[in-house]
Amino acid sequence: MTVQAKICGIKTPSAMQAAIDGGTSYIGLVFYPPSPRAVTGIEAAPLAAMVPNSVKKVGLFVDIGDDRLTEILNNVPLDILQLHGKETPERVAEIKKATGLPVMKAIHIEKADDFAGIDRYSDIADQILFDAKAPKDLKNALPGGNAISFDWSLFANHPWQNSWMLSGGLNAANVAEAIHVSGARAVDVSSGVESAPGMKDNKMIAAFLETVLALP
Fold this sequence. Notes:
Elements: E1 4-8, H1 13-22, E2 26-30, H2 41-49, E3 56-61, H3 66-75, E4 80-83, H4 89-99, E5 103-109, E6 127-132, E7 164-166, H5 175-182, E8 186-189, E9 194-196, E10 199-200, H6 202-213
Parallel strand pairs: 1-2, 1-8, 2-3, 3-4, 4-5, 5-6, 6-7
Antiparallel strand pairs: 9-10
Helix pairs in contact: 1-6, 2-3
């Protein structure tokens, strides 16, 4: 089974087509206004319409309220909800029940102790996404997409046996090592395929996907 890839933070038809043509398994649409990658439900609808059934459409949300989530889902037929904020297990369960959609919960990692957060979501989340924890002194830090990685060797103890995805500072140059060290079978990239924050580069998308899909 080849490693799967997710291209997150897509804002333009050109970038969407590059991700699809390159063989991505997931595309990510960011519904978090402070992010330079953010789109509205209206903006996301035509992008989502480009996506074939073979590719999963993931919506990234940060502590989203019910009304706004409903509004977005009325415009955009998402396949997976990625919760990237401080959502409690109870809130994750509420969202799953209300929407009927699978949920990917982000866990932010800096040191081994941070993996303990998995236990709270092990019976609720359908997938776990491991992302780097932003340093406290990082100005204008976002919940994700900060181009920061963490120590992949922390996965040596296999803290999550079910479906999970690796994120955080990945790019075409380091993703093979990240997969080898962590054992990830799915990876997520956003800033690593951008020429500037929020500006996807089609050649970088193609290079990332080519690298990932060439791995055993």
